[in-house]
Amino acid sequence: METVRGSTSLVGLLGWPVSHSLSPNMHNAAFNQLGLDWAYVPFPVRPTDLSKALKGLIALNIVGVNVTIPHKQAVMRYMDEVSKSAQTVGAVNTVYIKEGKFIGHNTDITGFLSALIEADCQPKGLRVAVLGAGGAARAAVFALAWSEVDSVVILNRTAERAAFLIDDLIDVFPDSSLYFGPLTEPSVAALKDSFDLVINTTSVGMYPHVDDCPWPENIPMQANTVYCDLIYNPLETAFLSRAKAAGAKTIDGLGMLIHQGAVAFELWTGKTAPVKIMRHACLAGLPHKRRHKP
Ligand SMILES: NC(=O)c1ccc[n+]([C@@H]2O[C@H](COP(=O)([O-])OP(=O)(O)OC[C@H]3O[C@@H](n4cnc5c(N)ncnc54)[C@H](OP(=O)(O)O)[C@@H]3O)[C@@H](O)[C@H]2O)c1
Questions:
Q1: 81 lies in some domain
Q2: Would the pLDDT of 238 be above 90?
Q3: Ligand 1, atom 7: nearest CA belongs to which residue?
Q4: Which residues, other chains included, contact 78 with Cβ-Cβ below 8 Å and sequence gap of 6+?
């Protein structure tokens, strides 16, 4: 789509802030590739303005929006319908507006699983550690439980938040092996050999704090464990760079970003998302591909 016209179908992003987002690059490249008269616009919306912004979307005939920090949970109360998975996870990241009604979805769940599978990491039967217990962790742990992993241990700086997440998981997966603890050196030291997959869902290591790492400095990483980071800016975090140095397989956060976007694209347009083009657009828009400048 070269020009925005009166006929252009609009989608966008509600968040605060939104200036760093790669979603406009990714979706607009996909619209161009398929020759669709569509455009994706980021909307910076303050937390106090969320309800006004949503009303405005209907008035402006917007087709749908992605929802990001800090609105993913707050937006739920304004939805007319919420998909079963979004309801279970307790967060909406994609809204489709149909005949003036808001339909809420959570594409982070499928996006996360597709990224693991694309990287040749089948979660079924794995012993998994999840570092962090925020919004991204919620999508990841529900996706893992649905995939019949062997066990999940959630380690978080604020251990109570991990406990709340475990409580919500147990309601849905009463027979699963679920544990929680603080994200501290002693707890990681006690468990370090017990995981097949370790996923960083914390924001530790995200630009500009690129030398920070959620894995304690004195605890070695294991060559036979897979390390996944949901952060995509930078693409290679300190966490992944340490895992690589230990000889382990690593998975960066770009796959999840692209696949959650692809599911949203398909919900809005009804067309198959051009995933390869979306990946190229994200890579081109990424300011910090490595932790250190080459
Ligand atoms: N690849 C993707 O598509 C994708 C999708 C969603 C999110 N993400 C990434 O995932 C990360 C988390 O996002 P979110 O939505 O889950 O954020 P969030 O809800 O704010 O949660 C942040 C998490 O990081 C932890 N944390 C923050 N600072 C910390 C520190 N200094 N030391 C230890 N733990 C710390 C928090 O622990 P406390 O509970 O103790 O505060 C919490 O567990 C971000 O980097 C985001 O970019 C990526």
A1: yes
A2: yes
A3: 136
A4: 50, 51, 54, 102
User: Which residue's CA lies nearest to atom 21 of ligand 1?
Assistant: 134
From ligand 1's centre to the CA of 156, what distance in Å?
A: 10
**What are the b/e assignments for 232-242, b being 16+ CB within 10 Å?**
bbbbbbbbbbb
Residue 261's pLDDT band, with cuts at 50, 70 and 90, is: very high
Give yes or no: residues 123 and 214 share one domain: yes
Catalytic residue among 52, 55, 72, 84: 72
Instruction: Indicate if ligand 1 lies below 6 Å from the C-beta of 73.
Output: no
At CA 194, angle to CA 190 and CA 199, rounded to 5? 100
Question: How far away, in angstroms, is 131 Cα from ligand 1 center?
Answer: 9
Q: How many domains does the chain have?
A: 2
- Does ligand 1 lie within 6 Å of residue 136's CB atom? yes
214 shares a domain with 130: yes
For the segment 270-278, the average pLDDT, to the nearest whole number, is 98
Strand, helix or coil for residue 180 = strand
For residue 119, give its domain range.
110-252
Model pLDDT, residue 287:
78
Q: What mean pLDDT comes out for the span 88-115?
A: 96
- Residue with CA closest to ligand 1 atom 43: 132
Q: Is the pLDDT of residue 294 over 60?
A: no
Does pLDDT of 168 surpass 70? yes
Catalytic status, residue 293: no
Report the CATH number at residue 17. 3.40.50.10860
- Ligand 1 pocket check for 244: Cβ under 6 Å: no
Do 122 and 236 belong to one domain? yes
Give the chain's length. Answer: 294
Q: Are residues 274 and 248 located together in one domain of the fold?
A: no
Question: Longest C-alpha distance within the chain, in Å?
Answer: 61
Average pLDDT over the chain reads 95
Specify the CATH number for the domain of residue 216: 3.40.50.720
* Residue bearing the CA closest to ligand 1, atom 35: 202
How far is ligand 1, taken at its centre, from the CA of residue 201, in Å? 5
52 vs 77: CA distance, rounded Å: 13
Q: Are residues 25 and 82 in the same domain?
A: yes
